[in-house]
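Before the break, one more example. Copy the sequence into your notebook; we will annotate it together after we see the structure.
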Amino acid sequence: MPPSVKSAGETTTRKRDSPGKRCGAHVKLIARKSTYRIAPVFLFDYAGAMKKNTHTTTKLISRRHLLATGLVTTMMPSLALAASDIIAHVKAPRSLGRDDAPIRVIEFFSMTCSHCASFHVNTFPEIKTRLIDEGLVRFEMRAFPLDGLALRAHAMARTVSSDKYYPLVNMLLEKQTSWTSATDPIEALRKLGRLTGISNAKFDATMRNRPLLESIVQMRQDALRDFDIKATPSFVINNETTISGSLSFTEFAEKINATVT
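Here is what the structure looks like once it is written out:
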């Protein structure tokens, strides 16, 4: 039977629920009231984030060089987009569910967070079937990278077309252990990207595009500023309440005030 909804309170005061299993954000590396125009160094430091990785694609290039080399044409299928258009696509919401759903959930997650992977493997399929597909929840995923490798995985996922985003994210989270523990995690990401049609040229262009990477880090900064997000996975419900942790379906439904009958 379709789910019913418990009426939400009228208050606009944001509340924070007690945390579950979650990955802690590097709050000491990014100030809560940061006004970064360029992302924190740790997210761009391949040597620190990738350890043994010495892949030649690690050199970052400017917007001008991206356009001059013609690599911009590889960023989106069959389209030669300007750098600003690429950034707009990367920053655009990635949502599932009806626009008029009574409960709106924003998840902040990191591609390298084990608790995020656990949530999406064990809980999200039931959320999709029983809450999203039934019209009760509109669900949006936003990047909150905890490290440089997560940043690059988010970048790869957000450059594909919107209809391929969730399948790619699901694959990356399901196979998280294999690519995060690889001797060369960037090359492991490349191989997974190829399974979804991401060419070597497109992958290289993404990894080298600093403005694109900075736009994803800015999403994290916005989450810190707007919702005081400090751990992953975290979920903001109707812009009012924040809950965290790898929750079971029952726990998640209860905390977002959704009653399934």
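The longest strand covers residues 103-109. The CA atoms of residues 53 and 184 lie 5 Å apart. Try to locate both features in your own notes.
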